[in-house]
Amino acid sequence: MTALVLQIEYTEDEARKIGVVGWVKNTSKGTVTGQVQGPEDKVNSMKSWLSEVGSPSSRIDRANFSNEKTISKLEYSNFSIRY
User: Fold this and answer.
1) CA 20 to CA 38: how far, in whole Å?
2) Do the beta carbons of residue 11 and residue 82 sit within 8 Å?
3) Would residue 29 count as lying in a domain?
4) What's the number of CA atoms in the CB half-sphere (13 Å) around residue 68?
5) In whole angstroms, what is the distance from residue 57 CA to residue 54 CA?
6) What is the pLDDT of residues 51-69, one digit of tens each?
7) 27: domain range?
């Protein structure tokens, strides 16, 4: 379990570096789910990182992004890990 948390912490660090807000969480199926908000170019940078780079010990089989929409204001003030 510690390894999964460590992997999520890399995602949290990258999100803060890029400048997006939202959250990320490990699922019971061994996948990761979450929500990312911010300017379109920053969200796209985060999507690229999630689908092509990820944390050092992760194995990315595929990345599925859904429910994308334009919002008028951010719903989160930072990026966090949910448990």
Assistant:
1) 5
2) no
3) yes
4) 9
5) 8
6) 888 888 778 888 889 889 9
7) 1-34
DSSP string across 64-83: --------SS-S-SSEEE--
- Distance from the Cα of residue 20 to its chain's centroid: 9
Q: What pTM was estimated for this model as a whole?
A: 0.84
Total tally of structural domains belonging to the chain: 1
What is the C-alpha radius of gyration for the chain, rounded to an integer number of angstroms? 12
Whether residue 73 is contained in a domain is answered as no
Q: Give the tokens for residue 54.
A: 């990820």
Helices (H), 1-83: 2-18, 40-48
On whether residue 12 sits in a domain, the answer given is yes
In a domain, 13, yes or no: yes
Dist. CA 67–CA 69, nearest whole Å: 6
Q: Give the torsion through C-alpha atoms of 52, 2, 14, 27, to 10 deg.
A: 60
Terminus-to-terminus CA distance in the chain, angstroms? Answer: 12
